[in-house]
Fold this sequence. Notes:
Blueprint: H1 3-8, E1 13-22, E2 28-41, E3 46-54, E4 65-71, E5 78-80, E6 86-89, E7 99-107, E8 110-118, E9 124-134, H2 147-150, E10 152-162, E11 169-179, E12 184-191, E13 194-203, E14 206-210, E15 214-219, E16 224-229, E17 239-248, E18 251-259, E19 265-277
Antiparallel strand pairs: 1-2, 1-9, 2-3, 3-4, 5-6, 6-7, 7-8, 8-9, 10-11, 10-19, 11-12, 12-13, 13-14, 14-15, 15-16, 16-17, 17-18, 18-19
Amino acid sequence: MSKKWENFFKNLGEWRGSFTQFSLEGDQLSSTDSIINLESFDNNQAFRFRVRRFGDGDYDTPPTKDYQQEHRTLGRYILVFETGAFSKGTIQLAPFSTFGAEYGLVTSDRRLRLVQLYDEQGEFQGLTLIREFRAGSTAHERPPLTVEQLLGVWEGQAHTEYTDLQKSTQYSTRLEVVRHGENQLLQTLEFEGQSLTSKGRIEGKQICFEDNMTRVVTLLPDGASSNIPLKLDSDQAAFFVEAGWLVSPTERQRLIHHYNDKGSWTSSTHIREHKTSGPSEPADY
């Protein structure tokens, strides 16, 4: 069994949760209960994926959607990490084409997935947050993410996988997030000898950054966050899209898709970081 296959199999099991649509401002638009089954067969040489989605009612009612598929390979354009985290999405940003990125983050008996979509004009279309719990476990949902939870110093380990199959890379990261005035944040990211500083404006459940493009971080339920450019343009500079998940008061995972200045997806980076100083929250929930 390949390492990629072995890592993906950390997602096996029955996951009960929901597909919930959010606006860019972090407001819930709709939600549908779901059950996802991932099971291996043929001596772990293949896996079966089944998704059931439910309307009003509960899991004992007939599903409104029941879809399944079998796979014997994982394509080149699904990148998988040691924890079972995975990413996939649009390979090439192109004019008059939709764009989407999907992320999967895993820890113990919890999964969190996020889908970010843009329309044919490069305008933001919607966020879908998928919160999942392993069936039969006592896993619980995290509180909604807040600005206060992000403040402090976060030290992490980054692991980058490349779409052209070159050897993966690993390196250390340091992220410091501090308040700068009443409604602003200042964050400094250090990695591989580089230091990047940016200033964000807090607006409700959003943090808006102005760099070479307007970038919006949306704070979501279950400790989740979405980090995207406000608009995509095939002529723009290199860019990234990101999902984050605060899995405990002092531990956060982030998954980042990197695109070059030609709009090609080049790599994804999974970061596991721990808060080493700064405000914290009680650890008893």
